Amino acid sequence: MTLTDKKALITGGKRIGAVVAQELARRGMDVALAYNRSASEARATASAIEAIGRRAVVIQADLSQASACATLVDQAAALLGGLDVLVNMASVYRAQPFEELSDAQWHEGLNVDLGASFFCARAAVPHMRKAGGGRIVNFTDWIAASGRPRYKGYVAYYVAKRAVIGLTEALALELAEHQILVNAIAPGPILAPESTSEDELKAVESATPVGRWGGEIEIASAVLFLLDSGFVTGETLRVDGGRHVR
Length: 246
Description:
With about 250 residues, the protein is an alpha/beta fold. It has eight helices and seven strands; from the N terminus they run βαβαβαβαβααβααβ. It is globular, with a radius of gyration of 17 Å.
C-alpha cells in the first residue's frame, strides 16, 4: 500500500503508539488518535504529527463499550476524509491474582483487548471497502503468540490476547476478497514500565537472545512492514528479540 495521503486510526496512542503514529506521519499519512484517559499524551503526539506536516485529530473514547468503538471509527473517518488503516493498540495490562479477579476486571480486559479490536474492525470495514482496500493491524503479545502463559496474575489479559490471534486469522479470511489485509503484532520486551528496576531491566536483557530491549521504533517498523505488504494476511508477527525461542 502506498501510504502517502492515506488515513489511519490508532487506538491507544501513547508511549509505543505515539512513535507508531509519528512514523506513519513521516510516511505521509494523516492520523486519528484515540485515547481514554491520556488526553495530554494524545495531544502531544498530535502536535508532533502536525510538526511533521501531516494532519492529526484526537478523539476520546471508552473502548470497553461496543457503541463507542463504532462512533470512534465513524468520527475518525469523517474528520480525516476516509479510513485506510486501523491499528488496534488499546489494552488493559495489570496484574491481578486469579482469586481476586472481579467480574468487572475480567470483562474490562476482554472488552478492551479483544472486543474493541473486533468492534473497531467491524466499523472500519465499510470505510475501507469504499476506499478499495485497507489494512488492519491488531496487537497481541509474544507470550500469547507462544501458546502458553508464563506469568501468573494476567488471566484476562492472556485469554484476550490469545483470542486476538484467532480474531486476526478469521478476519483475514473474511476480508481478503475486499483487499483488506488483517495481521497482528506480538510485542516482546519493547519498552520497560516506568517502575522497572535496574535489576529487572538487566534480567530481561539477559533472557532476550539479542541482549536488549527493542524500543518503540521496532514496533513502528513492524507496522510499516505490514502496511507495505500486499500479500501478507492472517499472520501474527512476533517482535520479541527472539525471546520465544529461549
